[in-house]
Amino acid sequence: MITIRRAGVLDARQMAELLNAIIRKGGTTAHTTSVSRDTILEWMDRDPQRSAWHVAEDDTGNILGFQFLEPHPDLPVEACDIASFVRLGQTGLGVGSKLFDASRKAAKALGYAWINATIRADNSGGLAYYQSRGFEDYAHHTKQRLADGAVVDKISKRYDLT
Fold first, then answer.
1. Residue 11: in which H helix or E strand, if any?
2. Which of 17, 85, 142, 158 ranks highest by number of CB atoms within 10 Å?
Protein backbone atom coordinates (compact mmCIF):
# COMPACT_ATOMS: atom_id res chain seq x y z
CA MET A 1 0.00 0.00 0.00
CA ILE A 2 1.20 3.51 -0.83
CA THR A 3 0.58 6.29 1.67
CA ILE A 4 0.95 9.98 0.81
CA ARG A 5 1.72 12.49 3.54
CA ARG A 6 3.40 15.83 4.07
CA ALA A 7 7.18 15.56 4.08
CA GLY A 8 8.98 16.43 7.28
CA VAL A 9 12.49 17.01 8.56
CA LEU A 10 13.01 13.33 9.34
CA ASP A 11 12.36 12.43 5.68
CA ALA A 12 15.22 14.53 4.30
CA ARG A 13 17.89 11.81 4.48
CA GLN A 14 15.80 9.26 2.56
CA MET A 15 14.73 11.91 0.06
CA ALA A 16 18.37 12.84 -0.59
CA GLU A 17 19.32 9.17 -1.05
CA LEU A 18 16.45 8.65 -3.50
CA LEU A 19 17.37 11.76 -5.52
CA ASN A 20 21.08 10.90 -5.50
CA ALA A 21 20.35 7.50 -7.06
CA ILE A 22 18.45 9.27 -9.85
CA ILE A 23 21.28 11.77 -10.32
CA ARG A 24 23.87 8.95 -10.49
CA LYS A 25 21.81 7.15 -13.14
CA GLY A 26 21.64 10.38 -15.17
CA GLY A 27 19.51 11.45 -18.06
CA THR A 28 16.28 12.42 -16.34
CA THR A 29 16.93 15.24 -13.89
CA ALA A 30 18.52 18.64 -14.36
CA HIS A 31 20.35 18.03 -11.07
CA THR A 32 23.89 16.89 -11.80
CA THR A 33 25.58 16.86 -8.39
CA SER A 34 24.73 14.92 -5.27
CA VAL A 35 22.51 16.49 -2.65
CA SER A 36 22.71 16.06 1.10
CA ARG A 37 20.08 15.84 3.79
CA ASP A 38 20.92 19.47 4.60
CA THR A 39 20.38 20.48 0.96
CA ILE A 40 16.88 18.97 1.03
CA LEU A 41 16.16 20.78 4.31
CA GLU A 42 17.34 24.07 2.79
CA TRP A 43 15.03 23.53 -0.18
CA MET A 44 12.12 22.72 2.12
CA ASP A 45 12.73 25.97 3.98
CA ARG A 46 13.01 28.26 0.91
CA ASP A 47 9.41 29.50 1.09
CA PRO A 48 7.41 27.30 3.47
CA GLN A 49 4.30 29.52 3.32
CA ARG A 50 3.98 29.10 -0.47
CA SER A 51 5.35 25.55 -0.86
CA ALA A 52 4.11 22.01 -0.31
CA TRP A 53 6.20 18.87 0.04
CA HIS A 54 4.79 15.34 -0.04
CA VAL A 55 6.29 11.88 0.23
CA ALA A 56 4.94 8.53 -0.86
CA GLU A 57 5.86 5.67 1.43
CA ASP A 58 5.22 1.96 1.66
CA ASP A 59 3.94 0.07 4.70
CA THR A 60 7.43 -0.09 6.21
CA GLY A 61 8.06 3.67 5.98
CA ASN A 62 10.36 3.37 2.97
CA ILE A 63 10.02 6.50 0.83
CA LEU A 64 9.06 5.56 -2.72
CA GLY A 65 8.96 9.10 -4.08
CA PHE A 66 8.54 12.74 -3.29
CA GLN A 67 7.10 15.78 -4.97
CA PHE A 68 7.20 19.44 -4.15
CA LEU A 69 5.78 22.64 -5.49
CA GLU A 70 7.00 26.13 -4.79
CA PRO A 71 7.09 29.61 -6.29
CA HIS A 72 9.75 30.23 -8.93
CA PRO A 73 11.29 33.61 -9.83
CA ASP A 74 10.70 33.02 -13.57
CA LEU A 75 6.98 32.41 -13.05
CA PRO A 76 4.13 34.82 -12.28
CA VAL A 77 2.89 34.94 -8.68
CA GLU A 78 -0.20 32.87 -9.58
CA ALA A 79 1.95 29.94 -10.73
CA CYS A 80 4.11 27.44 -8.90
CA ASP A 81 6.79 25.07 -10.09
CA ILE A 82 6.62 21.32 -9.45
CA ALA A 83 9.33 18.68 -9.16
CA SER A 84 8.77 14.93 -8.92
CA PHE A 85 11.12 12.10 -8.01
CA VAL A 86 10.25 8.40 -7.81
CA ARG A 87 12.65 5.76 -6.51
CA LEU A 88 14.38 3.84 -9.30
CA GLY A 89 12.43 0.66 -10.01
CA GLN A 90 9.20 2.05 -8.53
CA THR A 91 7.81 3.92 -11.54
CA GLY A 92 4.52 2.80 -13.05
CA LEU A 93 3.09 1.68 -9.70
CA GLY A 94 0.90 4.72 -9.00
CA VAL A 95 3.38 6.62 -6.83
CA GLY A 96 3.45 9.67 -9.13
CA SER A 97 -0.33 9.69 -9.56
CA LYS A 98 -0.96 9.69 -5.84
CA LEU A 99 1.69 12.34 -5.24
CA PHE A 100 0.16 14.60 -7.88
CA ASP A 101 -3.32 14.27 -6.36
CA ALA A 102 -1.91 15.65 -3.10
CA SER A 103 0.16 18.35 -4.81
CA ARG A 104 -2.76 19.52 -6.96
CA LYS A 105 -4.95 19.94 -3.87
CA ALA A 106 -2.14 21.74 -2.03
CA ALA A 107 -1.55 24.10 -4.97
CA LYS A 108 -5.24 25.06 -4.95
CA ALA A 109 -5.20 25.56 -1.18
CA LEU A 110 -2.13 27.79 -1.52
CA GLY A 111 -4.02 29.95 -4.02
CA TYR A 112 -2.13 29.07 -7.19
CA ALA A 113 -3.95 29.20 -10.54
CA TRP A 114 -1.59 26.91 -12.43
CA ILE A 115 1.38 24.58 -12.04
CA ASN A 116 4.52 24.65 -14.19
CA ALA A 117 6.67 21.60 -14.86
CA THR A 118 9.91 22.07 -16.80
CA ILE A 119 11.35 18.76 -17.95
CA ARG A 120 14.43 17.78 -19.89
CA ALA A 121 13.37 17.09 -23.48
CA ASP A 122 15.28 13.79 -23.38
CA ASN A 123 13.35 12.61 -20.28
CA SER A 124 10.63 10.64 -22.06
CA GLY A 125 9.32 9.18 -18.80
CA GLY A 126 8.97 12.59 -17.17
CA LEU A 127 7.31 14.08 -20.25
CA ALA A 128 4.84 11.18 -20.40
CA TYR A 129 4.12 11.45 -16.67
CA TYR A 130 3.19 15.13 -16.80
CA GLN A 131 1.25 14.66 -20.06
CA SER A 132 -0.77 11.88 -18.42
CA ARG A 133 -1.65 14.20 -15.53
CA GLY A 134 -3.12 16.74 -18.00
CA PHE A 135 -0.18 19.14 -18.38
CA GLU A 136 0.09 20.86 -21.76
CA ASP A 137 3.23 22.10 -23.50
CA TYR A 138 3.61 25.87 -23.60
CA ALA A 139 7.34 26.56 -24.07
CA HIS A 140 10.43 24.90 -25.51
CA HIS A 141 13.81 26.02 -24.15
CA THR A 142 16.71 25.10 -26.41
CA LYS A 143 20.32 24.58 -25.43
CA GLN A 144 20.01 24.88 -21.65
CA ARG A 145 23.34 24.41 -19.87
CA LEU A 146 23.29 22.18 -16.79
CA ALA A 147 25.66 22.60 -13.84
CA ASP A 148 27.96 19.87 -15.21
CA GLY A 149 28.26 21.65 -18.57
CA ALA A 150 25.89 19.36 -20.46
CA VAL A 151 23.51 21.12 -22.83
CA VAL A 152 19.91 19.90 -23.12
CA ASP A 153 16.60 21.19 -24.36
CA LYS A 154 13.80 21.57 -21.84
CA ILE A 155 10.04 21.65 -22.25
CA SER A 156 7.72 23.62 -19.98
CA LYS A 157 4.26 22.20 -19.39
CA ARG A 158 1.31 23.85 -17.69
CA TYR A 159 -1.54 22.47 -15.61
CA ASP A 160 -4.45 24.84 -14.99
CA LEU A 161 -6.07 24.47 -11.59
CA THR A 162 -9.24 26.36 -12.42
1. none
2. 85
